[in-house]
Amino acid sequence: MFNKTTLYGCTLAFGILGPILFPAYISQITILWLMVVFALTWDIMGGQMGYNSLGNIFFFGIGMYVCAIVQVGLYFDVAEYTAHSGAVKVNFTSSEYFIGFALGTITAAIVSALLAVVFGWIGFGLRGPYFSIGTLGVAIAAGELMGAWDYVGGGGGMSLPGFPGDSDGSAFYYVIMFSLAIATFLFLKWLYASRFSLAINAIRDDEEKAEGMGIQTKRYKTVAWSISAFFLGISGAIFGNMTGFIEPLEVAFPTVTFGIFMVLMALLGGKGTLWGPIIGAILFHVIKEFTWTYLLGWQWIALGMLIVINVVFFQQGIVGWMQDKWPEKFGIEVDEQLGVEESQNAEVAK
């Protein structure tokens, strides 16, 4: 049986001891947990249900903007706050910051989930590549619209309240992001052990047959996307405060970076599995940080080669390949008689 306890222990130990042992890299490790959330939430749709969304970054950006509006709007006029002329200079107290951050994060999660419901009822009329392209279009359009909305700073961006006190808040944001990654994992672990998982897997395998069996596919698809959007909205709220500045195309709706990364990480680790996206996110983030540090100028070539290797040699991902190689270690029972018959059939076919 695959020793999951060891994985749990190592992951938890690294999450707790990582920033203590490597304090200079606390920001990079925080981004690592963000990558884990990205991969896990994308896999709900793309891996478990077979709907490859290229626009999940939309909910990340919406969460970021919603949180910022709530944080500022609780105490000041948002339009004046974002005025390019600097009409208002704001100093938030500790209580104002933390109350605004908490309420903003909750609101970001709720609004993102509600928007998933709205767009789900519209977008789930599309399937296959049409759904992927449609969701990508929503994410790109959102970035352009936010860039033209002066209320939130337009293309010039929007500064968020600074972390109170003399600290930059890196430890605080680390704890919050790590907690979000753990909460996302535990929730999905419970979800994938329920009947809900059977329904969305049936949609992935054959949606028409699932509908014929009485499964209300549109409802399950909408709920699955809403769950993904909920956690992405929270991650956007945290990341926006962590960076301290929101820019629509590069920070809030980075479709060509974060938007693609979340897909690649799930594919690299093994989509449709619980641990695959986590392993893929960790491996991808390490490679990304290495190439950005030591191969600057070649980093996109290195990532492109990673995609090619993944597609050509590991189409099922690392975990999927390991399951095929050592099924008994994952608790997968193989019918030996069936395997013999398949081998004989293959020989006859030759």
Give a summary of the structure in a few sentences:
The protein is mostly helical and 350 residues long. It contains 16 helices and two strands.
> Which fold does the CATH topology refer to?
ABC transporter involved in vitamin B12 uptake, BtuC
Structural class: mainly alpha
**Which class in CATH terms?**
Mainly Alpha
Task: Give the strand order of the largest sheet, numbering strands 1, 2, ... along the chain.
Answer: 1-2
Features:
mainly alpha, ABC transporter involved in vitamin B12 uptake, BtuC, 71% helix
Report what the structure shows.
This protein is an all-alpha fold. The protein has one domain: ABC transporter involved in vitamin B12 uptake, BtuC (Orthogonal Bundle), CATH 1.10.3470. Helices cover 71% and strands 1% of the residues. A two-stranded antiparallel sheet has the order 1-2. Helix 3 packs antiparallel against helix 5, helix 3 packs parallel to helix 6 and helix 3 packs across helix 10. The longest helix is centred in the first third of the chain and has 30 residues. The two termini are 36 Å apart. The relative contact order is 0.16.
